[in-house]
Design a protein that fits this description.
By secondary structure, the protein is α/β, with parallel strands linked by helices. It has helices at residues 15-28, 41-53, 68-77, 84-90, 92-95, 150-158, 173-181, 212-220, 241-248, 269-273, 284-288, 325-335, 337-351, 357-369, and strands at residues 2-8, 32-38, 60-63, 100-103, 120-123, 144-147, 167-169, 195-199, 226-229, 256-258, 276-279, 295-298, 318-320. The strands form two sheets. A seven-stranded parallel beta sheet has the order 3-2-1-4-5-6-7. A six-stranded parallel beta sheet has the order 10-9-8-11-12-13.
């Protein structure tokens, strides 16, 4: 029997990008053993949710724990991500026993340098953004890179990072999953005011997070809009309890939600339920634009972004300084028509056709491992 391991070491936000393929593979190929290797109970719970959405058999979930020195490295550095390399080294022999490894991030490519040659390695990049980090040299170490749409596929080939024959465009797995999970947008507030989804990135040198307190204060002082402050889940992964409490105190019942870590940051609740997107460099803007709506982008660092492909999404709405956010949001709906056609084209290039994406990704994996039962 062939065996495939899905490896989740980058955090729970990677689960919805890769687990749909795991569920589809487990459902369609009973002759293939599908194992989910996870760091933490939260990821395990999310995997179970994904499998249930696809009516797949119960998932095989196994712990992918970190050695003690990995935990020590994380505490000393103050970075949760410092656990990844120690965990990979600890489990490298176990991983070598699978026919294929599937991951949503590039860190596991280091296994190639530690003797992992027989197992096929598959990358399903999380997100479909425009920043250069989505195209990196480590992708060349994977046997197959499964992307959502033609935008990133063409960019990878043009940059010489991945060969065309090693790429597969299948659609956006997370969007395919969301259509399985719900049929309508969640109600975020019990009022009729338009809701803003404010989504700062976690990298402070690129993000508007340093100005977020002032931006939230501006929304607290008005009565026209609701606001959801929902930064990338990694923005506060290393924060102390006191720091979290300070930010959460910015919330206001009936007007402002501050969410630093719930599952709503992962399952597109805010992207689906909001009326206007406010962000900086997060690729989640494309998830919001799966249903095209007004967008505003905060240029918090005076970036000269025009013509820069890393900021292509900033052409999909008005760009403003942090001080002008409220004014820009106020006119966003009126200005949306001028961006609508470009938004639709950008989403098509980023996501391709997402319905059935999980099944297509599973098929690519089966082909790669030479599944004898492949139809």
């Amino acid at each position: 029997m062939k065996s495939v391991a899905f490896l989740y070491i980058g955090g729970p936000h990677h689960v919805f990008h890769a687990a749909p393929a795991a569920a589809a593979l487990a459902k369609a190929a009973r002759d293939v053993q599908v194992v989910n290797l996870v760091s933490g109970e939260r990821s395990a719970a999310l995997i179970e949710r994904v499998y249930a959405a696809y009516d797949a058999p119960p998932p095989d979930i196994r712990p992918f724990d970190t050695p003690w020195w990995g935990g020590l490295a994380a505490r000393i550095s103050g970075r949760a991500s410092a656990r990844k390399l120690p965990a990979l080294l600890r489990h490298r022999r176990e991983l070598a026993g699978f026919d294929a490894l599937v991951t949503a991030e590039c860190s596991s490519s280091i296994l190639r340098h530690f003797g992992l040659y027989d197992a096929k390695m598959v990358l399903i990049p999380h997100g479909a953004g425009d920043r250069a980090i989505s195209i990196e040299k480590r992708m060349a170490l994977f046997d197959k890179v499964i992307v959502a749409g033609p935008k990133n596929a063409e960019r990878m080939v043009d940059c010489g990072v991945v060969r065309r024959e090693d790429l597969a465009e299948v659609g956006y797995l997370k969007l395919d999953l969301m259509r399985q999970l719900r049929g309508q947008a969640p109600k975020l507030f019990d009022n009729d005011r338009p809701t803003i989804f404010y989504n700062p990135h976690f990298k402070r040198e690129l993000s508007s997070l340093m100005q977020a307190e002032a931006i939230v204060a501006a929304f607290r002082a008005q009565d026209r809009f609701n606001l959801v402050l929902a930064p990338h889940i990694r923005a506060f992964e290393d924060a102390t309890p006191a720091e979290r409490m300070q930010w959460e105190a910015l919330a206001e019942d009936g007007k402002v939600i501050v969410d630093l870590g719930s599952d709503r940051l992962l399952d597109m609740s805010y992207a689906i339920g909001a009326d206007i997107y406010l962000g900086d460099v997060s690729s989640q803007v494309y998830e919001f634009l799966a249903d095209p709506r007004p967008c505003v982008f905060v240029n918090a660092h005076g970036v000269r972004w025009e013509g820069d492909p890393n900021y292509a999404f900033w052409t999909l709405g008005d760009v403003c300084t942090p001080e002008m956010v409220l004014q820009a949001v106020t006119v966003a709906a009126d200005r949306h028509a001028s961006y609508l056609q470009q938004q639709r084209a950008a989403v098509a290039a980023s996501f391709g056709e997402s319905d059935g994406a999980a099944d297509r990704a599973a098929s690519q994996i089966r082909q790669l491992i030479g599944d004898p039962e492949m139809p």
